[in-house]
Write a structure and sequence with these properties.
Helices cover 62% and strands 0% of the residues. With 188 residues, it is an all-alpha fold.
């Protein structure tokens, strides 16, 4: 880092934790006594590093990627979240979606835009509930069913049912086991 003092591992961990809690970059910068620009840079760097660690590269058999993209392409689910769940790149998912003739179903911001929790009294059901559950699982794989259910205002059983019906529970478990076999250590 040129000019200022380097970030410690503790500060970087704290930045990632606070950003996952939903604190704005400005608040994080003030708490650490750092500039907003440097804090933005560290948040992006920490998220990219955490994303790489969580999602080992995945190779798909012929037609397997297309089947997953077809299954997960719901209204409100961006290609970046599908890619995060599948452990591949957004461009790969986008090209596959275009090749399959599936229209773009998400017209939002960038890949790290925060998923908004459902407000008190707001009802979400059907495809939009599926989309919210998929987005939370993609962006916060460490969340339990209960934590996701609390944010989308449904029962934890419903979250598990959605993920099981889509085949994501088994898929994520198999991907982590494959990563353990190839790397020879526990997946983070």
């Amino acid at each position: 880092m040129s000019g200022g003092k380097d970030y410690t591992a503790k500060e970087i961990g704290q930045i990632l934790a606070w950003s996952l809690e939903g604190l704005k970059a400005r608040e994080i910068a003030e708490r650490l006594g750092r500039t907003l620009r440097a804090t933005h840079h560290q948040i992006a760097k920490a998220r990219a590093k955490a994303h790489k660690r969580r999602h080992p590269p995945k190779t798909f058999k012929a037609g397997e990627l297309a089947a997953w993209v077809r299954k997960l392409s719901l209204p409100g689910v961006p290609d970046a979240d599908i890619a995060a769940i599948l452990g591949t790149g957004r461009i790969v998912v986008t090209k596959c979606r275009i090749r399959l003739g599936i229209p773009r179903r998400y017209f939002g911001g960038g890949s790290f835009k925060r998923v908004r929790p459902v407000k008190e009294g707001e009802k979400v059901s059907g495809a939009s509930l599926k989309a919210l559950v998929i987005r939370y699982k993609a962006r916060h794989p460490e969340f339990t069913y209960a934590e996701i259910a609390e944010r989308v205002r449904c029962h934890p059983y419903t979250v598990g049912l959605i993920l099981r019906n889509l085949g994501l529970v088994r898929f994520i478990r198999e991907r982590e086991e494959e990563y353990e076999r190839t790397c020879g250590h526990e997946a983070d």
